[in-house]
Structures are given as C-alpha cells and as structure tokens.
C-alpha cells in the first residue's frame, strides 16, 4: 500500500512538472496538463464557458484566450473533476471517470510493448510505442479545427477519412450537423455538408487553390496543397511565417480562417465561406450561372435558357437551364469558351495530369457524354486536362479570378460567338469610344431604375428562417418604457439633442441610476415596418464588438421606435480631425489606432456573423470615440443586413453621404461590401490629411481630396497630403502604407478594391501592396453628377 502510494506521488509529480508525454506510469488528473516541447500547445481538462461538464482537449499555450483545437470525449463529458487520462497496455490512451470506468479511448488494433502518448508542437497528440511504432494520432480525428499540417481527405490504403466536424453549439463540443470534407470523387474538391446535404463547394483544385475560393491561394503566410495519387487524396496547408492561424467550422456551418493578432490579443477572421449567396450549392441548377453582381443572381449560361420558365420567373431556379439547340454528337459538335467562372462540380469527371489542352479537347469531342473540359492546373500557365460528364452544376461568376471552361455546343451555335468577339475587339480599339459606351450604359441603367422592381432578397428562405429562429432563442435585449426615455431626455429637449443621424435625431439621456445614454429616435417616415424594425434590433443586439457602439436596449410604443446606445463622451471623429486645435490631440499612433479600429469594426460587420451587415453610411461623424479615444462605429443598426450569403444588392432608397459614397452606389444604387470599403478609404485619407473630402479645395484645380491624393501618389509625393501636425512623428513608412491602402480602397472599380479582411491585414503587416488605380469620384464635378442622379432616383 505504501509502495503504491509513493509510486502515485512520484508519477503525480513527474506529470505536473513540464512534460509532453504520458506513459503507463505518468498520467494526468483534472487540473494537470502536459505541454508540447516547443510550448505551443497544452493538453488537459477544460469546461466551456457556461457548463460544468469537463472535457479533455488541446489548446494553444501561448495565447491568452483559451482556444480549444481538439476535444477527446466530445460526446461523453465528465460530470465532475475527478477524470484521469492515462496510457494503458497494449497501446491505448484512455479517459476514466471517478469510478474508474473508461469513458473514452483512442483506437488501435496493434499491441505494443511500451505505449506512450506525446503532444507534439504541431498540436498533434500521438500514441505510439516508445520504439517509434505509430498507433494513433488526434490529427486523424479532428474536431472543428483544421490545423496546419493536418491532412484532410481519404487514405485509400487504410480506408480512413479525415474530416472536420463542427461542434453542436459553442457550448457543446459534441459533433454537430456540419462537416467539412475533401472529396476525391471525380476530382478533389472540398465540401461543407449539413448531414448528407451539400451546402458549399470550394470548386476543384487548380494547382494554385480551389477554383471557387480565390482567397485560399498561396500567399506570404500560407502554402496550400492538394495531394492526389493512388494511395491517398488530401488537402493540407503549411504556415510560412510565425503567425498563429487556424481554420474552423462553426456550429452553423461557416468555415472561418482565423489569425491571432498579437497586438490586440484577439483572433481576427480573415476569410469565411460560404461567403455570398452564390456559394449555396447548386442554387441556379444545371447550366445556371450565379452572379452576385446581378440583381437576379441566377442566370443561364449563354446559349442556354430556363428549363421551366414559369418557375424561373418566380425565382425557383432549381430546375436549371437547358440548351437552346440540342447537341448532335454524330454530326459533330464543338466547344464554346466561357471565362471567369468557378468550375462546375467535378463529381462526374475524370482527369489527366499531363495531357495538353488540345489533346483534352480531342478526347472530349470524341466522347459523346463529355460535356466540357478545362485545364487541370493553372499554376504554370495551364496544363493537364479535366473532363466533365453530364450536367454542369454550381457555376459562379468570379470576377477577376475565375477560370476558363470549354462547354460542348451544337456546331450551329458556334458561329455567332465569333462575330461577337470581333465586335468587342473593334470596340476596345478606341479607349475613348469605350468610355463613351460606358457612360451610355450608365445613363441607360439609370433610366431603367426609374421603374424599380420591388426588391426581393435573393436569400433562400431557409437561411432567413434560421436567422429568425436564432434571434428568438436568445434575445436578451432590455425593453425600455417610453416614460423612462422621456424622463431621461427631458421630453426630447432640444438642449439634449446631440445631433441628427441619418434616421432621426439623437439625444443625450441620463437614466435614473445616473447612467448616461444616447437615445436615437427613429423618424416616423423611416419606411420601416414594425416587424422589420424588431428583426433589425435583434440583429444589432447580437452584434458585439469593441469597435461598434453598444446597443443597450430599445423602446417600441405606439409610433415611437427608439434605440438606446451607450454614451460616448468624446463625441465623434469629425469633431477632432477637422478642427484646427483639437486635431493636435490626435498624433499619428492614435490616428493609426483609430483607422485600425474602424477597419476591425467593419470586418466584424462584413464577416464575423452569419448575418452580413453593410453599413452604407460610414463617415467621420459616424465614428464615435470613447473615453480612451477608441473608435466605435455607430449607425450600423439601420444599415442593411443580409443573410450571411449575400454580398450585394440593389436599393430603391439611397442613404449615404456625399463624399463617402462609391460611384456604383451613388450612381446605380448598387451597394456591396465594396461600397463600405470605398467609404472607409475616404475616411482614411481624411484622417491622414485632416481635411474633408467634399470641401477640399486645392490651388484652384477641381480635384477633390481623392483626386489630389492620387496625383501626389503618382508623383511619389504622398507625404505632402499628411496633416502637418502629425507628419513629424517619424512614421513615414506607416504613413505611406496607410495612404496607399486608402487609395486602394477608393479605386473606381469595386472589384479592384480589397475586401476589409485584406485591408486589416495590409494595415498591420509589411506586405507588398498592388499599385493603386484611379479613384472613383476624384473630381468635384463627378460628385455633382452623382448628386443629380440621387435626386433622380429619389424623385420617382
Ligand atoms: C462512470 O462511467 C460509467 C460508464 O460510462 C458510468 O456508468 C458511471 O455512472 C460513471 N460514473 C460517474 C460518477 O459519472
Ligand atoms: C477503431 O478501429 C477499427 C478498425 O481498426 C474500426 O472498425 C472502428 O470503427 C474504430 N473505432 C473508432 C471509434 O474509430
Ligand atoms: C517496436 O516494437 C514493436 C512491438 O512492440 C515491434 O512490432 C516493432 O517492429 C518495433 N519497431 C521498431 C522500429 O523497432
Ligand atoms: C506576442 O507578443 C509578446 C510580447 O508582447 C511576445 O512575448 C510574444 O512572443 C508574441 N507572440 C507571438 C506569437 O508573436
Ligand atoms: C453524376 O452522375 C449521376 C448519374 O448520372 C447523377 O445522378 C448525378 O446527379 C451526377 N452528379 C453531378 C454532381 O453532376
Ligand atoms: C505522363 O507523364 C509521365 C511521367 O512524366 C509519362 O511517363 C507518361 O508517358 C505521360 N503520359 C502521357 C499520356 O503523356
């Protein structure tokens, strides 16, 4: 007995000193951990925030926020803190509860002499024999986190499939409905599935990345690869630098790429997928083409028409499209090139790595069931051959980064295309003519707007439903009585008025307990129904980020619709930067901090929630400052919220502020995340220069601040733009970078503008930035035009 006790004490001691290995004599109890040799990961017992259930898991050791990357007993929590994790013969890692019952175990069929379990510095927990014989690893059974070095896919020798499986909820690590797979059928592509139903497809691997996920390309931080051969098919990624990064699948099926920001000590989401409505698998049916740039996002590919025109007109696109002219394989078909697409589902396809495109064409032509072909690998200018059989499904227009595909056509369909090309070529002969054409199109489009269609969201019903249910479940927003608001604001006294927001006046209020609040009274004519308002409020209440103004509650009584926000003592950004004396209080580090904070706030609105919020009215007066000069975006409540899948829409009512509106929004009412990026760019240049874009006047030329900044940038004299009160602060590299980023954000073409995640990254890292192209609205005159078009739109 004594002997046993002393062994117990001994082993206990060894385990709690730093080790990365468990053996048959060294085990850990709840409260003890092991740490990987490089100090990156830690293995031990944990609970989620609202539960007392105990789980064995692995988390980052170097990160202050506990971030669990793997869980052992997902489905069988320990109910108390008496769990023990140990290695037993003949080679298993087991978790026992306080009655010594095994409630979870690793899996291995091979018996070994001397089993050990070691936590590697990659986050992989490996069970092996002390002599090195491998038995089991946690990387083969991932939970919701895909770590660098994991191999997602299928091993044809062992039959093992490694896939990511989301948690049931943020509180419950048990397997939820969503999974993420690398599917080797036909040709490798990754899927998010809900149960057995496909939700999202990355598109086939094209050597650089996945066809439909241009964000997942090799870059200075990562390299991605897909390995496929007779033995295995897997997808994997490596970190090239020291950034801490992970990929997760959230409980509601959103894949997210996170990077740890060591400055702010928080995780930032750089990418999420599905990302827009067109990412909904097969939304437009066979031969449909999904384009978020169109108000009707589903269209048929050229030479195809809706199979069921009535349903199609009612936005039921599931039946897809059919050929206008049927194929005639015996008498010779041909191929038509379609450019700029996410390639269709490769479930029914075959490939050859070293066939040329011409050979590929010949093979496809000679196989009547072959419907299309493309290059397999575009990393080296195009090589290999990918052949499709059967209908082409889940194609999406990807502007800028799409691929070419050659689709089989009846020979009679081939001629007209040739003519069209000639026409386009002759048009592009003269740049002037092209510009003329462009302005004509603008005018025509504006005319068309005079007869607006009622906007129906392209959001599939189930997404909306889901959002709806979510809200009901956890609405914890206080409702204020009108009498309390009236008392707090002195009956909306003019003396309490803080300002006039886009949707109504804002008052300062003091609640009985002494808490200061800002009260926004929505104007009656805000055109918003009660249900819509409620939904909106519930959405806003869920948005919590340190760079967004916090909603404290709301009040709905009679015709009154009121929002109660936290009060910001330092007013708004315009109060400082445009004021000669006060702007001296904001040196460059403070301003950079503000710029980065705004960017993070926007990133949160655009990407972090299943609901995508486009602000539409970002401007200096909507950036409030707290007591520590931290920026907080306000007025996002009345912005446009989307199902997480939609990125762009048309609006009948233009809200926004002159000088901050992007050309496509002011001119055509077309807004997207990129219109917010434009406004952000304007803000950056204003913060740097201390001048308003709209009232900018410089030595008689008729450029606005954007035009002026661009001219200086072209001449390499950007620093002349910078507010003289901050230019001396030895930060010229940061200043140059920020001006450059600002100019990238205000480029004329929405596609050229970076998304906010890239903006956050570019502001914080020394990366090579692309050349900025000409900004939109760079002359005072163009703005006047835009205003005219706004009145025109509102007048109808
Ligand atoms: C330990 O696990 C066994 C088997 O699952 C179970 O029957 C027993 O109730 C558990 N004991 C406690 C205290 O949870
Ligand atoms: C353990 O491995 C065997 C084959 O080696 C397999 O049939 C079984 O499903 C595995 N169990 C678990 C829980 O993975
Ligand atoms: C390690 O030991 C196992 C048996 O415990 C044996 O099967 C295996 O061949 C050994 N491997 C090496 C590399 O010695
Ligand atoms: C984060 O910053 C701290 C100092 O603030 C430093 O000690 C640590 O090594 C950094 N971690 C990473 C991962 O860069
Ligand atoms: C693949 O072919 C089968 C059989 O023709 C068909 O049922 C299935 O829908 C096809 N899958 C795709 C993704 O085209
Ligand atoms: C493909 O490449 C391999 C090795 O490079 C070569 O052995 C094989 O003959 C090639 N196949 C064809 C069809 O060109």
Automatic annotation (TrEMBL):
Domain spans labelled Protein kinase: 492-768
GO-annotated molecular function: ATP binding; protein serine/threonine kinase activity
Signal peptide: 1-17
Reaction catalyzed: L-threonyl-[protein] + ATP = O-phospho-L-threonyl-[protein] + ADP + H(+); L-seryl-[protein] + ATP = O-phospho-L-seryl-[protein] + ADP + H(+)
EC code(s) of this entry: 2.7.11.1
Top-level division of the source organism's lineage: Eukaryota
Xref: SUPFAM superfamilies: alpha-D-mannose-specific plant lectins, Hairpin loop containing domain-like, Protein kinase-like (PK-like)
Xref: InterPro entries: Bulb-type_lectin_dom, Bulb-type_lectin_dom_sf, Kinase-like_dom_sf, Pan_app, Prot_kinase_dom, S_locus_glycoprot_dom, Ser-Thr/Tyr_kinase_cat_dom, Ser/Thr_kinase_AS
PROSITE patterns named in the record: BULB_LECTIN, PAN, PROTEIN_KINASE_DOM, PROTEIN_KINASE_ST
A matching Pfam family: PAN_2
Gene3D superfamilies: Bulb-type lectin domain, Hepatocyte Growth Factor, Phosphorylase Kinase, domain 1, Transferase(Phosphotransferase) domain 1
Transmembrane segments: 422-444
Record flagged with keyword Disulfide bond: yes
UniProt domain Apple: residue ranges: 329-410
Domain Bulb-type lectin: 19-140
Key words of the record: ATP-binding, Disulfide bond, Glycoprotein, Kinase, Membrane, Nucleotide-binding, Phosphoprotein, Receptor, Serine/threonine-protein kinase, Signal, Transferase, Transmembrane, Transmembrane helix
Family: Belongs to the protein kinase superfamily. Ser/Thr protein kinase family.
Name of protein: Receptor-like serine/threonine-protein kinase
Organism field: Cinchona calisaya
The organism's taxonomic lineage, starting at the top: Eukaryota, Viridiplantae, Streptophyta, Embryophyta, Tracheophyta
């Amino acid at each position: 007995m004594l002997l046993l006790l002393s062994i117990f004490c001994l082993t206990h001691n060894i385990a709690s000193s730093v080790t990365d290995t468990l053996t048959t004599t060294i085990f850990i109890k709840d409260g003890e951990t092991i740490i990987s040799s490089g100090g990156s990961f830690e293995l031990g017992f944990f609970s989620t925030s609202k539960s007392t259930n105990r789980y064995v898991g692995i988390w980052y050791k170097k990160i202050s926020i506990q971030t669990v990357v793997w869980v052992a007993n997902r489905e069988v929590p320990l109910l108390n803190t008496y769990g023990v994790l140990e290695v037993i013969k003949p080679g298993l890692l087991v978790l026992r509860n306080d009655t010594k019952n095994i409630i979870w175990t690793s899996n291995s069929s091979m018996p070994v002499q001397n089993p050990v379990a070691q936590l590697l510095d990659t986050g992989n927990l490996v069970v092996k024999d002390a002599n090195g014989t491998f038995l089991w690893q946690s990387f083969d059974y991932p939970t919701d986190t895909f770590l660098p070095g994991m191999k997602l896919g299928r091993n044809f020798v062992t039959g093992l499939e490694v896939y990511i499986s989301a948690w049931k909820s943020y509180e419950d690590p048990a397997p939820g409905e969503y999974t993420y797979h690398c599917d080797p059928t036909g040709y490798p592509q990754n899927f998010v599935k809900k149960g057995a139903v496909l939700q999202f497809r990355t598109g086939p691997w094209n050597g650089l990345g996945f066809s439909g996920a241009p964000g997942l390309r090799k870059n200075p931080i990562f390299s991605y690869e897909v390995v496929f051969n007779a033995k295995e098919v897997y997808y994997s990624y490596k970190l090239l630098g020291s950034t801490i990064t992970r990929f997760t699948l959230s409980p509601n099926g959103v894949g997210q790429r996170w990077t740890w920001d060591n400055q702010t000590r928080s995780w930032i989401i750089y990418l999420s997928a599905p990302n827009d409505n067109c990412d909904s698998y097969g939304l437009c049916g066979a031969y449909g083409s999904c384009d978020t740039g169109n108000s009707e996002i589903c269209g048929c590919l050229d030479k195809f028409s809706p199979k069921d025109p009535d349903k199609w007109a009612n936005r039921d696109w599931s039946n897809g499209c059919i050929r206008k002219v049927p194929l005639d394989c015996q008498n010779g078909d041909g191929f038509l090139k379609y450019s700029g697409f996410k390639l269709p589902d490769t479930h029914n396809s075959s490939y050859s790595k070293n066939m040329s495109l011409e050979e590929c064409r010949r093979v496809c032509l000679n196989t009547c069931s072959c419907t299309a072909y493309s290059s397999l690998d575009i990393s080296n200018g195009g090589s290999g051959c990918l052949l499709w059989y059967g209908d082409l499904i889940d194609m999406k227009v990807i502007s800028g980064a799409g691929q070419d595909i050659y689709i089989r056509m009846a020979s009679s369909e081939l001629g007209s295309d040739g003519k069209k090309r000639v026409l386009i070529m002759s048009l592009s002969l003269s740049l002037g003519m092209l510009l003329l054409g462009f302005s004509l199109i603008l005018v025509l489009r504006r005319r068309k707007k005079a007869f607006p269609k009622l906007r129906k969201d392209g959001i599939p019903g189930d997404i909306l439903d889901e959002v709806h249910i979510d809200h009901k479940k956890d609405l914890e927003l206080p409702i204020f009585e009108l009498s309390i608001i009236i008392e707090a604001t002195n009956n909306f006294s003019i003396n309490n008025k803080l300002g006039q927001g886009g949707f109504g006046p804002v008052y300062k209020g003091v609640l009985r307990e002494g808490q200061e609040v800002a009260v926004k009274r929505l104007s009656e004519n805000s055109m918003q129904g009660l249900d819509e308002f409620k939904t909106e409020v519930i959405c806003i209440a869920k948005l919590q980020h340190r760079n967004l103004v916090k909603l404290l509650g709301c009040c709905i009584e009679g015709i009154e619709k009121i929002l109660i926000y936290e009060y910001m003592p330092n007013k708004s950004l315009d109060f400082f930067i445009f004021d000669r004396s006060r702007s001296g209080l904001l040196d460059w580090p403070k301003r950079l901090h503000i710029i980065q904070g705004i960017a993070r706030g926007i990133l949160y609105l655009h990407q972090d929630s299943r609901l995508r919020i486009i602000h539409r009215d970002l401007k200096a007066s909507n950036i409030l400052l707290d007591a520590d000069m931290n920026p907080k975006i306000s007025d996002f409540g009345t912005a446009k919220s989307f199902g997480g899948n939609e990125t762009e829409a048309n609006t009948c009512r233009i809200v926004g502020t002159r000088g901050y509106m992007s050309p496509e929004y002011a001119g055509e009412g077309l807004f997207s995340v990129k219109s917010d990026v434009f406004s952000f760019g304007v803000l950056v240049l204003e913060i740097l220069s201390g001048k308003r874009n709209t009232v900018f006047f410089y030595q008689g030329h008729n450029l606005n601040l954007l035009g002026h900044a661009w001219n200086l940038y072209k001449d390499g004299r950007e620093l002349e733009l910078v507010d003289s009160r901050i230019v001396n602060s030895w930060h010229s590299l940061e200043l140059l970078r920020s001006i450059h980023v600002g100019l990238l954000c205000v480029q004329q073409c929405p596609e050229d503008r970076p998304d906010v995640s890239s903006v956050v990254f570019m502001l914080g890292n020394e990366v090579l930035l692309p050349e900025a192209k000409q900004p939109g609205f760079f002359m005072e005159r163009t703005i006047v035009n835009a205003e005219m078009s706004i009145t025109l739109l509102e007048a109808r």
